[in-house]
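Lay summary

Proteins are chains of building blocks that fold into shapes. Our project writes down both the chain and a compact code for its shape. Here are two examples, one after the other.
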Amino acid sequence: MKHNLLFYRSEKSQSAGTTLICPRVGDAGYDLQAATDAVLAAGERKLVDTGIHCAIPLGMVGIIRDRSSMAVKGGVCLAGIIDASYRGEVKVLLYNVSAEPLVIKAGDKIAQMLVVEHLPGEMGQEVDSLESLGETSRGSGGFGSTGK
């Protein structure tokens, strides 16, 4: 099933030469680039402009995730759900986990956006007991339940 992701580049995005592309055929994420320069001090979080506005198809969601090249420098994403109804600018909330300032130049690839299908945003069906959820081999095993 093919979906068409529509996007608009603002003047600041065009001036920075940014766009919204998957770098190679078969790549899962669209690269998000900074539309403006930014500096994040050690331990600082900041919204970084991309200048990109999207029309994500109904039944899909944009999920903003780290780029490995940015994470190596200390820049990690803290939030990132872009709903199909949102038409505002996509911004990336970056957090600098390193001990050094993180310098971002306009045009730098700062995150990636995965566009995936999701369940409809309706209320789930509540059941009367925990057993009604059914059994699995994992059960309620959580953090570290599969070993080291």
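And here is the second example, written the same way.
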Amino acid sequence: MKFFIVVDMQNGFVTGSLANPAAQEIIPRIKKEIEKARKEGATIVYTRDTHQENYLETGEGKHLPIKHCVEGTNDWQIVDELKPGDDDVIINKDHFGYAAWADYIEPGDEVTMVGTCTDICVISNALAIKMIENVEVNILAGACAGLAPATHKAALEVMKCCQCNILE
């Protein structure tokens, strides 16, 4: 089975509390890639960073003390340009990576990933998926945005070392 995963393209990371201009720039490319994946019959999956009002009291919140992507807020919503369709899967995750990918992905499946942040959430989820035996993981580098160009590039190199296919 083929999966196309859109990582954390939420208002909070694009224009909101943790706005990233690089994430804004990749929206048109991601939109085209989603349309292509739909035509190819891939299952479209969106991850959504999901926090609660007590975020600043959590382990992550103590290291990143900026309240963001609180469930139910505008910050938490997927950007309008990339709104999920009725048949798409939305995974709410309370940390960088999602621990239960094996509930969806099986050995022999192929995964293509895009989104933000390359150097935190994309890499965390790519490596979690690579823990499933015999899954091909493709990262569309030109449809990912990091916190900075150097950390984006470093994350791509690490994923490549962990046998992800880095594509433009």
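What can we say about the second shape? The helical segments are 11-14, 21-25, 27-39, 59-63, 118-130, 149-161.
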